[in-house]
Amino acid sequence: MRRARRYLLASASCLATAHCTAQIVALADGWSFRQTGTNAWHPAQVPGEVHTDLLRNGLIPDPYRNFNADSVQWIEDKDWEYARTIHADAALLKYEHVDLVFKGLDTFAEVWLNDSLLGKADNMFRTWEWSVKELLKPGKNILKVIFRSAVREGMKLRKTYGINLPHDSDPSGTSPFVRKAAYQFGWDFAPRLVGCGIWQPVELRCWNGARINGVQVEQHFTSDSIRLKIQVNTLGQAEATVHCSLDGVPIGQPAMDAGPAASITVHSTLPRTALWWPNGSGEQPLHNLHVELRSPKGQLLDSTTHHIGFRSIELQQQEDSIGRSFTFIVNGKPIFMKGCNIVPPDMFPSRDDSAWVALVAHIQRAHMNMARVWAGGIYPPEAFYTACDTAGILVWQDFMLANLVPAEGAFLENIRLETKEQAQRCALHPCAALLCGNNELNVAWSNWGWQQKYGLHGADSARVIDSNRKLWKEVLGTVAADVGMPYTWTSALSNWGNAAGLRSGDLHYWGVWHGDATFDSLATSVGRFVSEYGFQSWPDSALLAQYIDADQLHLGSAALRWRQRSYKTDGPIWEAISHELGEHPKTLGEFIEASQAVQSLAYEKAIQAHLKKQPWCMGTLFWQLNDCWPGPSWSLIDHEGNWKPGMRAVEELYAK
Q1: What is the pLDDT at residue 258?
Q2: What is the number of domains present in the chain?
Q3: How far is it, in rounded angstroms, from Cα 653 to Cα 645?
Q4: Are 194 and 317 found together in one domain?
Q5: Taking the complete model, does pTM exceed 0.90, yes or no?
Q6: DSSP alpha helices (H): ranges in 73-177?
Q7: Tell me, what DSSP letter sits at residue 238?
Q8: I want to staple 22 with a disulfide (CB 3.0 to 4.6 A). Which of 43, 207, 371, 520 is the partner?
Q9: Rg for the chain (alpha carbons), in Å?
C-alpha cells in the first residue's frame, strides 16, 4: 500500500508526543549475509536476493553468462542468514506501537529480534508483520532472518501431502508446494535459478492510538453522479475519525469507529466528471484521494494518498448465437482489447522496479490497451500499476497459480490471505480490469495427460482436481467479489484443440509452435478472445555476445543449444523459415534474422485475423512481450529492451 508519510532513517528522531503522526523507519541499509553454518559475513543489499548478493561480492559467476546457471544450482540447497542492527533511540521508543514489516520474504524464513523468534514466513507474495515494541531495547538491537531452502522445505510438504503433483518444468517436483515464483524453478523461456532473500522493502511502522491498515474504494455510477464508498481499515484501540478529500476538497462526512481491527466507511456523491478510459479510447484523468485518521480531538494519527480514476468495467460473458462471448465493457462501451502477455523482466525480481515501468512505455508506444500479468511470475510492483493508470493500460492480473497446488488446510488459507492482499492492492487502481484464477491448469488437467504421467487416479485424482477447482471457483471468486473486480476462474476457458473452443470464452491458441499447424491456421483459428498465441525468435547476436563466449557464437554450438529452453528446441523455427520464407540460413546471423522475420509474420497473420473478425473476437493478447533473461523466446522485446521486427509490426497493426 502506498502511503504518503515522512520517512525516517533507522537512527533518526521525531517529536514523539502522545498523538504523534505515524512514521515509517526504512530498514534498507546495513545488512550482511552468510551461508548458514559458515563464519564469513558479506555486505548485502535489501531489497535483494542471495544470487545477486553473491554475485555482487564476487562469490559466484554471472548466472546469465555461458553455462553459469548450471554451476550455481548448489545455492538452492543451502540455508542463508541476513542480519543488521536497529538503533532504537528515545524518540522511537516513545511510540505506543512499533511494528516490523517485511513486504516480501522469499520464501521460508524465520525472523528473530534480539534472540527472540518473532515468527515464520512461508509465502513470497505476502506482507509479514510483527509487533516489536516490547522486544526493542535502547541502543543496538539485532535483527536476523534465516532462510531455509525452498526445495528442501517443498519436499517436506510434498511428503506430508502424499500425492505427486504435476511439475513439468521442475525436475525436483517441489514447486507446486511452495508459494514462490514458478518460473524460477525453470520454464520454457527461463533457466532454473531458485534463490531466497529479502526481496521487498523492510520498515518499522511507528504509531500511537490507531493507524490505517488498508483502503478500498467502490464506485457506483448514475447518469449524472458518482457515488463513492470509501472503506478504511484501521488497527488500534483508540477512537479514530476518518476524513477524506479529493484533489484537496473534503468529501463525505467524517466517520468514527474504534477497536483493534475496525472498518470505517465514508460515503460521498460527486458530480459525474471526465471518465478514465483505456489507451486509444479517451483520456486518463486521475484524482488524489487523501485519507486521514484523526483522534477525537483532531490530532493527525495517520494518512495515506492514492490516485484514483472514475470508470466502470465489466467482463461480459453471454450466451449468443455463436457460443459465449468474452468482451470487456468500459464505461458502458464494448472495447476491443489490443495487448500482450508479460513475464517478470528479470530472473531476480528485486533488481529494479524501473524495468516494469519501462514495459508500460513499450506497451503504450505500440498502441496497446491491455497487458496480462502471467500466473507463473510475480505480482508487479506499485510502480507498474501506477504507470498503467497514467498510460491507460488495462491490467489482466492472474493470481500466481501456474501449478496445481495442495489446496487444503493451512496451504489453502495461505493462498487466500495472499490473494486477498494482492487483490486489494490491485483494485485501487483504475487500470485494474480482471482477476484470473490460474494459467492453463483446467485445460491441462483435461488434455495434457497429467493423470497418466503423474499417477493421479481414483481418489487421488478427485482430491487434487476437486480441491483446486474449489480454490479457483469459490475461494478466489470470493476474493475478487470482495474487491468488486471482474473475475474469470481459469485461462484459457476454451481448448485450442477443437472447433468448439473457438466459439466460447478466451482461448490460448498453440496449434502453431506446440502443435504441427502452419501459420495459415493463425488466420482461421480465431476465438472469442485470444489471450495467448505466439512464435519464437532469437535475440540479436550483439546481445548474445554479451553473455556467450565468441567461440560459441555459431550454429549448432553447445551454448546455443543449452540456452534454448523449449522442449521443441529450434525445430519449429527452422521449419517455419523453410516453409514461410523458402530460406536455409548458413550462419548464425542469417538464422537470427530469419527467425525474427518468421516471428513477425506469425504475429501479423494472427492479429490481422483477430481484428478482422470483430465482434466475434473482442481481444488479442500475444505471448509474450518481454524476456526475463537473454535467450530465445516468444518475446518481441529482448532482455535489453530492444524491439524485434515483430514489435514494429504489432505497433503498426494496433494503430489501426
Answers
A1: 72
A2: 2
A3: 13
A4: no
A5: yes
A6: 90-93, 150-161
A7: S
A8: 207
A9: 25
